[in-house]
Amino acid sequence: MSRSDRIIRIAIDAMGGDFGPEPIIEGCMKAMDERAFKPILVGNRDAILSFLPEFYLERIEIVESSDVIDMHDQATNALRRRDSSIYKAVELVRDGKADAVVSAGHSGATMTLATLRIGRLPHISKPALATLMPNINGKTLVLDVGAVVECKAQNLYEFGTMGEVYAQELMGISSPRVGLLANGEEDSKGNELTKEAFPLMKSVPGFIGNVEGRDIFNGNVDVVVTDGFTGNVLLKTSEGVADAIFTMMRQAIRKSLPAKIGALLMKKKVFARLKKQVDYAEYGGAPLLGVDGCAIVSHGSSNAKAIKNAIFQAIGYAQSDMNKRIEELLAQANSKED
What we know:
The protein is of the alpha/beta class. 46% of the residues lie in helices and 15% in strands.
């Protein structure tokens, strides 16, 4: 049986997230209505069952846990809290009982546990959190957006390799364009880190050189590589800008009758399409690339739609040759250096 034919098992942290288990269970059910997979819900059994209709009971598995890592808890404590829902969900992947883990809980705890308990791929020094951002032609993959705040040049090179493979395997781009985020397109631009990383990035087949922040949105590049500090600031700023623009548009429309009429005419086609394109729920979550398995980190405020799409991401990742291809490319690069 091929990887694409077998039933994929997804461990889901049912207790993580800002709104408790309800949107997570609802998102899981929505995913089950559209795709064939085996959900393993990890958390308080009574709480899970209170939101789960009897119709779905035979199609899911529940793993009991009595602890939940709160958003205000230290991520470093996650390794000691072995009865937490996220710890047990990650352990299912580590033990081969699940193909992927999805969590909208404490992102730091999820990344820490996935990295240390599932482990890294052999040629990866640090994992990267990748996210899809909208551009005028579709989507741009940006990594890292928060996993590695202090990066080395080697980390950025590995991020570029992983991003290129992700774009090929899961975004369907045969020859993705990979750029290094800098303060100018010229080869000489950048800080000490990007200047050191630039010659290493030339080993990434799709590397096109330095790119600027605007290139993420104008469709000039498919994959953008940066350190976790810069990437996280970029992500949060972009989310804030998108929210502010929609708020300003609503305020301007309310002040003008012609604008109200125009908005009404465009509501279903233009505004609906634009809102869908910038809605994080459409992407579901961010894959932690470089771990020896699959971990999808979802937003804490994820609704049912976001959880459903995070599960779909996990299924697609588990069915792909992502990790195998990353290892092959990095092993080939290392053998050339030797």
